[in-house]
Every structure is written in structure tokens, then in C-alpha cells.
Amino acid sequence: MAPPARYCVPGERLCSAEEATAGSGTYTRHGFIFSSLAGCLEKRNEDSGLPVVSVVRDAESQLLPDVGAVVTCKVCSINSRFAKVQILYVGSTPLKSTFRGTIRREDIRATEKDKVEVYKSFRPGDIVLAKVISLGDAQSNYLLSTAENELGVVVACSEAGVQMVPISWCEMQCPRTHTKDFRKVARVQPQFLQT
């Protein structure tokens, strides 16, 4: 009878890089092989020496944000150094459970990073498109960036509770009261528009 498959979580250390070769769903760092996915550990013996260690995701398992993925998130809170967000979608796929993310002040814009002010870029409740630049773990958040024209605020509500309209790359306007608010506005690409 085969032993039960070992379940791995992202960032879990699997074995020494001297014992095996990193396969799909894994990465090597500091002489060890780590899991980059949530899934089952597989060890295949190859003819050429070391066994290959890989992590295979179950069809039903949780989709996780990956470095370079574009995610949709909701701003929960802001301070002078960063915005805290909840990641809701990876690409166009909704997540079964939400993940926490952080957009640091220096990751908001690609230019004039020292002049960026978080409160002029995001407000709690905003829906933001961002790119994952670093994986989180159980204790910390995913690090996200909006430092591209296509990334930033896509949906924001005014104080009157009306969805605001972008009028430039750094401002949105309330169609009811005509008041303007500063935001880091995303130039939304057609593939992200749902009709």
C-alpha cells in the first residue's frame, strides 16, 4: 500500500538541494528546495542520479497569487507608508479565501517615488489592480506594486457614495457633486473590462 501523499504549503522547506533536483511547483534557495504551491509532494526517480521533487496542485485546491500575477484587491486601510489590501481575484479568477497584501509607498508609481503620498493614491474601499512582486507567508502579506500605467485604482466611490469617473492619471471626479479626488488611476486594458 502506498504511503499517503504529503501535503505542502507555499514556502515550506522540502529537502536539501543535495538530496534531489527541484521540479515543477518548487524553487531552490540557500541550498534547500521549497514548495512554491499548495499541493501534494511527488518524488520521481530519474535515471540520471538524483530524484526530482515536485509539488502538484489538486484540481480543487486553492489558487494562490504568484509573483508577476495581476491581482484585483480592495483597500482596507492606509497610512503614510503603505496601503493594506485584501486580494480578491488572481487575473479574472475569484479566490476561495482572501489574502492580505501591502502596497508600499515606493511601489505605487514608477517615477518620482519620493514624492508619492499614499492618501493621494488610494482610499479605503477602492478597488485596485496590482502586480504581485513578492510572495507572502503565514506571518506577512504579499507585496504588491501599482508602478505601471495599467495598474492602480479601477473603482472608487466618492463621499456622496457615487462611483467616480477617472479624469486623468491622478484624479477621479464624482459625477453627482463634481468634486475631484486624487488617485493613482489605472489605464484599464480591454482584457480586464467585463461587459
From TrEMBL:
Major location category of this protein: cytoplasm
Gene Ontology cellular component list: cytoplasm; nuclear exosome (RNase complex); nucleolus
Keyword Nucleus set for record: yes
SMART domains with a match to the protein in the record: S1
Keyword NAD set for record: no
Database matches in Pfam families: ECR1_N, EXOSC1
UniProt KW keywords: Cytoplasm, Exosome, Nucleus, Phosphoprotein, RNA-binding, rRNA processing
Compartmental location: Cytoplasm; Nucleus, Nucleolus
Ranges of residues in domain S1 motif: 66-147
GO biological processes: rRNA processing
Molecular function GO labels: RNA binding
Assembly description: Component of the RNA exosome core complex (Exo-9), composed of EXOSC1, EXOSC2, EXOSC3, EXOSC4, EXOSC5, EXOSC6, EXOSC7, EXOSC8 and EXOSC9; within the complex interacts with EXOSC6. The catalytically inactive RNA exosome core complex (Exo-9) associates with the catalytic subunit EXOSC10/RRP6. Exo-9 may associate with DIS3 to form the nucleolar exosome complex, or DIS3L to form the cytoplasmic exosome complex. Exo-9 is formed by a hexameric base ring consisting of the heterodimers EXOSC4-EXOSC9, EXOSC5-EXOSC8 and EXOSC6-EXOSC7, and a cap ring consisting of EXOSC1, EXOSC2 and EXOSC3.
Family: Belongs to the CSL4 family.
Protein name (database record): Exosome complex component CSL4
Gene name of the record: EXOSC1
